[in-house]
Specification:
The protein is of the alpha+beta class. The chain has ten helices and ten strands.
């Protein structure tokens, strides 16, 4: 494949990121626009090859790296070439899991393949062992392929169980999938159940913090409920990570509901955690700063 020809075509394509929306696309090339999302737009290059063009370089680098890691597995589309803002790859055909489940049941066999998918994510070195059902495709031979894997790498904090997949399945299929996991991989089920319980408690912590109760007292009482294994240090770390992730999500929702700008909210959250880390290192009281911030 001639990357020079690809880059010549891409000179007539503009992809621009849009805050909280899909990218904007100006296409003056002969390539057909197949679809677009938050990070980029996909164009048909040939019957079996497409070009994904990104709105910024970092998203392109992230997905290229993730796809490179995944080339050792047939779960991922073949990678042909890449540039600063584009990736040339195999077109993933078949039907996505979201559409499939609208007319077909979630069988134990399909659940087995989804468990294998998550295990493969871990084996290839992804940080986030999770994926949304709309990004999982069932092939004509019943095997799975995935798209949009950029957000699986370079993640500082992630949910330690496949939260995105479970929630995207919907209530009925989520329960069915967890039942299958319990039958097929009981130890994995126990771990996911444990972390789901941790997340619930993390959200309780957030609500208590909003009521201005002492962080130290809250964390002490709630963490005792979740430290159920021998590796206490690891689970304290996981609890802290969950609290921070939940706190960030809930704080964004709270501030946006009050009319604050998204960028200012995210910046305030990052600064809050920087101050919190310095404060914990000095052994000072978190509640004091919470009152100061409120003023």
């Amino acid at each position: 494949m001639s990357t020079e020809y690809v880059e010549k075509l891409l000179k007539d394509i503009q992809v621009k990121n849009v805050e909280n929306g899909d990218v904007e696309v100006i296409n003056n090339s002969p390539l057909e626009l197949m679809g677009k999302g938050r990070q980029g737009a996909v164009f048909r290059y040939s019957k079996d090859i497409c070009i994904k063009v990104y709105g910024n370089k970092e998203d392109c680098e992230r997905e290229h790296y993730a796809m490179y890691l995944g080339q050792k597995s047939d779960l991922f589309p073949l990678l042909y070439a890449a540039g600063d803002n584009y990736i040339v790859m195999e077109i993933v055909k078949g039907v996505d899991l979201r559409e499939y489940l609208q007319s077909q049941p979630l069988t134990e066999q399909l659940s087995y393949k989804l468990i294998e998918l998550l295990i493969t994510f871990k084996e290839v070195g992804f940080d986030r062992i999770d994926h949304h059902k709309r990004q999982i495709y069932i092939q004509p031979d019943s095997n799975l392929k995935v798209i949009d894997v950029g957000r699986t790498v370079w993640r500082n904090r992630v949910y330690p169980y496949p939260r995105k997949l479970l929630n995207s399945l919907g209530k009925e299929n989520k329960a069915k999938f967890l039942h299958h996991v319990k039958l097929l991989a009981p130890e994995l089920f126990e771990e996911w159940e444990y972390y789901m319980r941790m997340e619930k408690l993390s959200r309780e912590i957030y609500q208590l913090l909003l009521k201005k109760k002492s962080n130290k007292d809250v964390l002490s009482s709630l963490s005792k409920k979740v430290l159920l294994t021998n590796d206490e240090q690891m689970h304290v770390s996981q609890l802290e990570s969950l609290i921070r992730k939940v706190f960030k999500e809930e704080w964004v929702k709270t501030m946006l509901a009050k009319g604050y700008e998204p960028d200012r909210v995210m910046d305030a959250i990052d600064k809050h955690w920087e101050r919190a880390e310095k404060r914990f290192a000095k052994g000072t009281d978190i509640e004091k700063e919470s009152d100061e911030n409120k003023d």
